[in-house]
Design brief:
By secondary structure, this protein is α/β, with parallel strands linked by helices. Helix content is 26%, strand content 26%. It has helices at 43-49, 99-102, 152-155, 161-171, 187-198, 213-219, 230-234, 254-258, 281-285, 299-312, 326-335, 347-353, and strands spanning 3-9, 18-24, 31-41, 66-73, 85-88, 91-93, 114-115, 135-139, 144-145, 179-183, 202-207, 223-226, 240-245, 260-268, 290-293, 318-322, 341-345. Helix 8 (254-258) links the parallel strand 13 and strand 14 (260-268).
């Protein structure tokens, strides 16, 4: 039988999120039922709620950085049990049989992965609803174990911001001795700095803001370059092995390409729009540089980043909020007034319903 869940939903692009009761789908033999404890707030939630990408079906409950406690498991579940603390990230399903899925790269599923919210369920066609709610039902394959000792509140954003920056660092082989530039100092950028340092790299943050210099060093950056300072940018030409570009809006990447060594790799993890201004082909060809992109990570790698962060005591910097303040949080996100992720304490949802 479907269960009634409570949460906060967007009902249209121009109205604030508000309380919403809805039915979760029927539980299946491979499902894990989860009471949600914490849910991170991602910029994607905001874009989706306001239909910035033109793909939203309303009402929609956002949230894909979910930490919770298992309350029930299906008959086919073997990896989780009642009482376990688990996480759910950006995906809740995929085709499970294509080459990408068989390689544990469900994020690149050839049939497209099922998003945690805003996607048709592959079995019954109902719209998936996310983590701004009290409970969720997810297939075991897309549920990860929260390592013992990890701080659950700050671990929630690791399921998006953490894996988004970890996956390309691992894939492209960042190791001790490499020089990594991280472009941008937001939710993704500050995690990129922490993770690249843990990989053993020498890390330089690129920012437009003088005010972020000390903060970047506090996060672990070895150096900071003000990207609007032509002299500073000229001083690092041909210097880096990798650029991790976390900026989500159009920006000129040519100066950063020039800062790469030959065979250097510039990795886009934030920009979904066309690159503007255009990329200089010569900057790539004459130094055999690579311009690459990376999405989140597959399920094995998502478990891996949680274990890695627990081992290295890496956390996301978070600000806890009451679910009733979610619309204020969205406005603050637009202004860049958060360091570096909001996380909803779902206990406040019960208070809202009282």
């Amino acid at each position: 039988m479907p269960t009634v869940a409570k949460g906060y939903a967007a009902h249209s692009a121009d109205k604030p999120l508000s309380s919403f009761s809805f039915e979760r789908r029927d539980s299946r033999p491979d499902d894990v039922s989860i009471d949600i404890l914490y849910c991170g707030v991602c910029h994607s939630d905001l874009h989706f709620a306001r239909d910035d990408w033109g793909m939203t079906t309303y009402p929609v409950v956002p949230g894909h950085e979910i930490v919770g406690r298992v309350t029930a498991v299906g008959s086919d579940v073997s990896q989780h049990k009642v009482g376990d603390i688990v996480g759910v990230g950006c995906m809740v399903d995929s085709c499970r049989h294509c080459a990408a899925c068989n390689d544990g790269l469900e994020q690149y599923c050839l049939e497209g992965f099922t998003m945690t919210y805003g996607s048709p369920d592959r079995h019954d066609g109902t719209l998936t609803q996310g983590g701004y709610s009290d409970a969720i039902v997810v297939s075991e394959r897309f549920v990860v174990r929260m390592p013992e000792g990890i701080d659950l509140k700050s671990a929630a954003p690791l399921l998006c911001a953490g894996i988004t920056t970890y996956s390309p660092l691992k894939h492209y082989g960042v190791k001790p001795g490499h020089k990594v530039g991280v472009i941008g100092m937001g939710g993704l950028g500050h995690m990129g700095v922490k993770l690249a340092k843990a990989f053993g790299a020498e890390v330089t943050l690129f920012t437009r803001s003088e005010s972020k210099v000390e903060e970047a060093k506090r996060q672990g950056a070895d150096h900071v370059i003000i990207s609007t300072d032509e002299a500073q940018m000229a001083s690092v030409e041909g210097n880096f092995d990798f650029m991790l570009d976390t900026v989500p809006v159009q920006h000129d990447i040519n100066p950063y390409l020039t800062a790469l060594k030959y065979d250097g790799v510039h990795i886009l993890v934030g920009l979904l729009e066309p690159i503007d201004p255009a990329v200089s082909g010569g900057a790539l060809i004459f130094k055999r540089r690579v311009l690459a992109g990376s999405l989140i990570g597959g399920m094995p790698e998502t478990q891996e980043v949680l274990d890695f962060c627990a081992k290295h005591n890496i956390t996301c910097d978070v600000e806890m909020i009451d679910i009733r303040d979610i619309n204020t949080a969205y406005e603050r996100m637009i202004k860049g007034d958060v360091k570096y992720r909001f996380v909803i304490d779902m206990a406040t949802l019960k208070e809202d319903a009282a």
